[in-house]
Prior knowledge:
The protein has 85 residues and is mainly alpha-helical. The protein is built from four helices and no strands.
Amino acid sequence: LSKANQTISSVQQQRKSNLTLLIDLSRNSATQTTFQAIIASNDLSLECFLLRFVIEKLAKRDWTLELCTLILPAVRDLIKSHYYL
Length: 85
């Protein structure tokens, strides 16, 4: 049980670090830079958050081919993983 708690704690700490990075980037960087950081984190929960943001919040004028080429592989990975919220 203790080892399982350490594993969960480690994952949560990494996720917190990734979220802090995401918040800092979103305040100070372009959308594309923030998306690149999320995808590079290899954290499915962050990628799921990214997808939800894209669907609900991203203005159509902000869509570019570069963003699509960043997001589509992440979407494919989410579908393959059967990740559920």
